[in-house]
Amino acid sequence: MEQKVANIAGAKASSDARIEKMSEIHRFSHAELDSLKILYPGGANDLRLKVFRDLRTRVYASAPGKNFTCMVTSVVPDGGCTYVVNNLAAAIALDKTRTSLVVDCNFYAPSADSLIVTDTDVGLTDYLDSADMGVESIVYASGIPRVRVIPAGGNTEGATERLSSMRMHAFLDELKTRYSDRYILIDAPAVGEYAADTRIMASLCDFVLLVVPYGKVTEAQIRSAVDAIGEKRLVGMVFNHM
């Protein structure tokens, strides 16, 4: 009997911890959002808000009436991929009937931890390495209402093998089907440096946004990136000057 009570108490504690992790326990202040270069209504950068609302509308048009999994990659590293992912996620979440989920698949330069407002003990790589771990164990609250985050995780070696695994396939399927109002944005490594990983991820997603850092890449690099992704998967290009 005592053991049963202890098990119930342990399960409740675990459930309470998950509720705390997923709740809106801290919202970023306007100063914090400005520091992270993330849009919000009433902010000083009205152009950013307008641009990402327009991008949101264009992406919605590619999957009318349903949610989607959209991979975002850049032509070269530090091209602004994470900036686009974070702001598109925030733009989607402005609609109180929708939520967005940022999944950090850039194992070479993970960045999603900057959005998370709780301690992170496990992430995507931990989930992919453990058949006993559920998706709910790696989803965290962000400082932006209705935006959730899955960080890259601990051991980030062997990215290509993990991304091409059957568990990764099942993972993305579950994310998309579990909540019909949740839009999944994949922060992927730069296609110019990690073409193999990008091709794998592109094949698993509904479509791809390519970020082009303005004035920092050649036309040949852009064409090579488009070829690696595949024109049928490419939903558009975002020219970034941030």
TrEMBL record:
Keywords: ATP-binding, Nucleotide-binding. This is XRE family transcriptional regulator. CDD domains: BY-kinase. One of its GO terms (molecular function) is protein tyrosine kinase activity. One of its GO terms (cellular component) is plasma membrane. It comes from Saccharophagus degradans.
